[in-house]
Design a protein that fits this description.
Peptidase_M20 (chains A, B); hydrolase activity (chains A, B); 4-stranded antiparallel beta sheet; elongated; 2 domains; hydrolase (chains A, B); Aminopeptidase; Alpha-Beta Plaits; 6-stranded mixed beta sheet; about 400 residues; alpha+beta; metal ion binding (chains A, B); homodimer
Amino acid sequence: MTQDMTEITAAPAFQAATAELRSTHDAFVDEIVELTQIPAPPFAEEVRAKAYEAKFRALGLEEVGNDAIGNVTGLRRGRGNGRTIVVAAHLDTVFPAGTDVTVRREGTVLRAPGVGDDTRGLAALLAFVRALGAGGVETEADILFVGDVGEEGKGDLRGVRHLLTEGPWAGKVEAFFTIDGLEPSEIVTTAVGSLRYRIGFAGPGGHSFAAFGTANPAYALGQLLTGMAALDVPKTPRTTYSASVMGGGTSINAIPEEAWVEIDLRSEEAGALQALDAQVRALAEAAARDETARAETGEIALTMQRSGARPAGTTPDDARIVQATRAALTAFGFTPSARAASTDANIPMSLGIPALCLGSGGTGGRAHSLDEWIDVEEETSLRGLNAALAAIVATAGLWARD
Amino acid sequence: MTQDMTEITAAPAFQAATAELRSTHDAFVDEIVELTQIPAPPFAEEVRAKAYEAKFRALGLEEVGNDAIGNVTGLRRGRGNGRTIVVAAHLDTVFPAGTDVTVRREGTVLRAPGVGDDTRGLAALLAFVRALGAGGVETEADILFVGDVGEEGKGDLRGVRHLLTEGPWAGKVEAFFTIDGLEPSEIVTTAVGSLRYRIGFAGPGGHSFAAFGTANPAYALGQLLTGMAALDVPKTPRTTYSASVMGGGTSINAIPEEAWVEIDLRSEEAGALQALDAQVRALAEAAARDETARAETGEIALTMQRSGARPAGTTPDDARIVQATRAALTAFGFTPSARAASTDANIPMSLGIPALCLGSGGTGGRAHSLDEWIDVEEETSLRGLNAALAAIVATAGLWARD
């Protein structure tokens, strides 16, 4: 039961909220700079989390806290039925401790590692809370604002995974926004699932000449890679695999004691990912077995260490959150489209919670590089913030006094 | 025309020489310690070479010098026809600069990196020169004593290669001893040839999900390794191959831009080594071609960098040097046998110069490790020195006054 978008955009409270976004845009930009300059390396988001928690408290959110995994949460109560929707942005960056995160401003351009991914998202949440308060916007559902940990790389979505499966909010969330990225028109409604492994083959090693005939882990690795190259994966749902980092051996005149490869398996669909996983596992087992059989002496031992698992999932196009977001984007002049990616929304989607990932506006580039930049030119920036706020309000439901 | 071994061992001059070996054995041991404690890392043999050159001069050798590649040479003239035989030991060790090369003495045991391989050999050459001088032994052929560089690993036999193909002695050497190792009974008359490569496959790389279908160097590497595992190589002449050190890739979510492997090919016979080389090269070329064909986009480029080439070869059992050495070993109570290895003798053998590698006696172990040790217990040590000296004199020919 989605409200007509014009009911929201025409409502005086919502108009007052967007006026607040405009009048405080400079403060929003300052907050991007401030938060960007607090380092938040993978698995070390605490300092930024503390600062973010203080801001949640200052904004008057309720039940503000730092959960067991490190997420910062704060509730804005609705007037309705106790339903809860989540609006999240991630605290962590991909940059290691010691990275220079000083923001350089050139006109409306801000340059710094992490400035767009996802510090603009964090600041956007604060701007939304401020705007909703200033406009006196009342929603039906409660809105839980979240600064979450562990979105990037080896973080493996642990923040949102904990939030939705173990923390106090588990089982209570009805819809989930992650505000991540810039361009709002391309919403992510399909979660690309992934499985990552370090596959190692170990053998006894030995002198290359004297011990010739001993099982060589490199040949087991070769057989696995050759098998992978020949795998047939579906184009729809898009399913991919890659051998990426590899290594082994210590000396050119020695049969290596180990050969290993890191692999990355992905799919837009959980079943296809599972099928690919089983195929690769079978290839690895056969490779170890066959090299052991081929050798005159020595055995190859296989180890598969999982280094990442992000579930696949999809939010149906007729879900309220998707309908509301499409309508909000259209209302603010965007042409919405849907795409697949791996974001914090993977977790809710895999749990059947309608979810999507939405950009907060502005432009930029070079995310995950030291040259990362965003442009906060006001009109473009505000158009994105307004659309995102409308999408959130429409998903939560604008409380109607009558 | 080999002299009867008893003509040599019974000659008063030779007996005086072996008496000198015995009476100066303590000095010989001290010289092992002294030389061991002068570091001679790969490609940095200069300091030890300088010290060795000074010893050659002090012993009265003629034409003492340090050639263009770093070998130390010194001539002991014969009385005969101007024929020249070489007696060499290698200056270099496998140990990098900074390795603690302090010798620890425990009774007759000496412990230090490089003490046996090949510092005992270097000291043996000095003992031989001293003994020949003290005994007044006159040989038919000139004997060129050589402390050579680059025997180990990446040194790739460059010292002896230069000596016999480019230096002033090129084309003038009739037989070649390398005094390397301890146990004298197992002489090396077959040179195991080797070819070493770094084989690299390069492609454009890309994001593991977004760029799926791009040529992946890891799969080309896999095909090469799988092909190598299936190669059929002869048992006689013993021919072997090994994939050893490998690597590639930088990030688990990226298709690697490179995958590489170092390989070691060996054979006792030059033709078999050449055939194996051609097979591996064909496999590598096919692997690059097939992955390029399999991929939707991107090309795999192959590079094969040769990092080592040691020629194969054999000294026939009826060569004077082999006959003389077998007779000398037998005369001193050893039971001679022949084996295959990769030593400085590879170079002369590949050039058709009769050559062999002979141990200088004593016992020991753990060569190429920091725990390397030798035992210089006098009787065992002298028996080896005596036999080696007899082999050298018999190969050079004991000059008969009559």
